Amino acid sequence: MKVLRILILFLCCSFAASAQQQFTLQQCIETALQNNSRLKQAKLNLSSTSIDVKTSKAAMLPNLNASFTENFNYGRNIDPVTNAYIVNNTQSSNMALNSSIILFNGFQLLNNLKLAQINYTATGTDVLAQQNDLALQVAAAFLQVMYAEDNLTNAKSQLDVTMNQRNRTEILVKAGKLSESVLFEQDAQQANDEYNVTIAENAIISAKLSLIQLMELPATTQYSIVRPTIALPL
User: Fold this and answer.
1) What is the pTM for the complete model shown?
2) Rg, the chain, Cα only
């Protein structure tokens, strides 16, 4: 039974590790750009202004309308030619084709086109600005996660040093080489270092939550970041 429990625990840990996602900085930025709701709305506005430009251009072109009607009369009817009553079946067709173009309307169409083009350019600039701003926010959040992880590593290292010092101090106190007050100081330092480790762990959770919120993924998403490799010049 003990072996079975260990095996089940091992399989669960392996599954959790394989299910955890890994994100590079580039993947974080791309995910945020794809999921951000404000950016989606800005892109919809850009599409709308693009349609306005096409509509304004189309309004300057000539229009063309065509129509066709077909009439059938059965039984006693009035002849449309002689206006006399006849007992006959009649059939008539009518076709129409017309076209028009606005030659001049006080430059209204031209001004509408210029306005639509200006709105399209402004909306495109807004989309680009939102993309750049979001990318910078994601990069800053990514670096914050790295910074928090480094702080945790340093806090754990400091705790290890303090625990080793505390163990040596305890041996010296038992041997009568040091007073017990020194051991109390070491205990206080170890408790403070353990508190710093907890603070660092919570900082990682907070930093990861901020990053996942920028990517607009579920807050329960388990993931780790892939640190970028920087080649140092020789």
Assistant:
1) 0.72
2) 39
